[in-house]
Amino acid sequence: MSGTGDVMGNGGERLRRWRMVLGGEADGTGCALGGRDAAMDAALGALYGPGGGAPGAARGDRRAGGLGGSAPRVARWLGDIRTYFPAPVVQVMQRDAIERLGLDSLLLEPEMLEAVEPDVHLVGTLLSLNKALPETTRETARAVVRKVVDQLEQRLASRTRATLTGALDRSARTARPRHADIDWNRTIRANLKHYLPEHRTVVPERLIGYGRAAQSVKKEVVLCIDQSGSMAASVVYASVFGAVLASMRSVATRLVVFDTAVADLTDRLQDPVDVLFGTRLGGGTDINRALAYCQSRITRPADTVVVLISDLHEGGIRGEMLRRVAAMKAAGSEFVALLALSDEGAPAYDREHAAALAALGVPAFACTPDLFPEVMAVALEKRPLPVP
User: Fold this and answer.
1) How far is CA 21 from CA 17, 26, 69, 271, in A?
2) Relative to the CA of 120, which of 80, 176, 204, 360 has its CA 20 to 30 Å away?
3) Integer CA distances (angstroms), 6 to 15, 20, 77, 385, in order
4) CB 282 within 8 A of CB 130
5) CA-derived radius of gyration, the chain
6) In sequence order, which residues have a C-beta less than 8 Å from that of residue 42 and are 6 or more positions away?
7) pLDDT tens digits, one per residue of 213-260
8) Which residues touch 242 (CB under 8 Å, ≥6 apart)?
9) Interaxial angle between packed helices 87-101 and 120-128, expressed in degrees from 0 to 180 and rounded to the nearest 10
10) pLDDT for res 210
11) Half-sphere exposure of 187 (CA within 13 A, CB side)
12) pLDDT of residue 215
């Protein structure tokens, strides 16, 4: 009874909301839609109604409409949803349209790309279509990818540089500094228990010094990225982070992508867009071959951090992959295994391989882009990883 009272008390607004949720004809709720509400309902019905052709749509779904295969009609729909819904909702609806209605091929047209709301998932779709992009669309596609990359760099770059610079400075400190290299603030804090009140002074038993300022490389980072289709968002974020790391003078960064083959994209790191268009999403997976390549490029194991970004669904030689990880760790390299580098939540991954890595002292976990700088800082300082 209380529910009935609530509906009656809220009047038409509650009925209107139910009508928007249920879709279909007005006789289901007795509430007719008009104006903006009717336009929003039509946009939703075109995608989620049976007329939209969504695979698996329930027979009882009352929404009507459809996008069909018409590029002009889809372009108008993309414009409508950007008018009626906020950007995060638009991105979800675009993703659903691509996945549910098979609109990938329409993204090969410049007019379509100009109409979409760019986001990480759209970039992943474009990269998977990279080889199929006609010349007339390629520049538009690069502009879409550039917009997303620039947004990510603005969000992530300064914090990453600040966090890693601090970690590199701390890892370079020495306990036997020359007088000119003593970090007096940290030395005093570390020796406060040795304060002598009668002399009003601190007797330092342990000196903490800055590492000598040097232009030479302090650490080496190898990003080894799985470019199978399920890792699209991770590839986008990792490419941006790779470019940020490469811009730091004290870090030598190598970026390697792999499926069943291995591609070293280090020479493209000055521009993450070039890195992304150098990938080829959707292949198989041979982690062992990729790690063999990375291992062969390590020149200073004790100063190297290897970051494997993969769901660990190995198509190569499992035992050899694990032996390579163990060998790199035994040589002094830090090894980080990320099941995903994205905001998408818990990923699907090979649990057996993850457990095998954990047994080697390499916990495998998913990492958000916002947490990645802290993970890298901890690895550079050889501290225990902040596993979620």
Assistant:
1) 6, 12, 26, 44
2) 80
3) 11, 18, 35, 51
4) no
5) 27
6) 65, 80
7) 444 668 999 999 999 878 999 999 999 999 999 999 889 999 999 999
8) 223, 253, 255, 269, 272, 275
9) 30
10) 59
11) 20
12) 47
Tell me if 56 sits within 8 A of 38, measured CB to CB. no
Quote the tokens at residue 58. 């329930």
Return the beta strands (E) in the chain as ranges.
195-196, 201-202, 219-226, 251-258, 262-264, 304-309, 334-341, 364-367
Ramachandran class of 361: left when φ > 0, alpha when ψ lies in -120 to 50, beta otherwise:
left
pLDDT bucket at 5, cuts 50 / 70 / 90: very low
**CA dihedral (182, 185, 188, 190) positive or negative:** negative
Region of 255 please: left (phi>0), alpha (psi -120 to 50) or beta: beta
Residue 372 has pLDDT above 70, yes or no: yes
**CA–CA separation, 358 and 360 (whole Å):** 5
Instruction: Give the Cβ contact number of residue 126 at 10 Å.
Output: 28
Cβ atoms within 10 A of the Cβ of 337, count? 25
**Token pair of 238 as six digits:** 């990792």
Q: What are the structure tokens assigned to 13, written together?
A: 């607004």
Indicate the helix (H) or strand (E) that contains 143. Answer: helix 135-172
Q: How far is residue 319's CA from residue 305's CA, in Å, rounded to a whole number?
A: 22
Question: What are the backbone angles phi and psi of residue 304, rounded to the nearest 5°?
Answer: -120, 140
Of 254, 252, 250, give the one whose Cα is nearest residue 165.
250
- DSSP sequence for 155-215: HHHHHHHHHHHHHHHHHH-BSS--GGGB-HHHHHHHTGGGEETTTTEE--SS--BPPPP-S
Cα–Cα distance between 285 and 308 in angstroms, integer? 13
Report which of 364, 370, 276, 279 is spatially closest to residue 321, judged by C-alpha positions.
Answer: 364
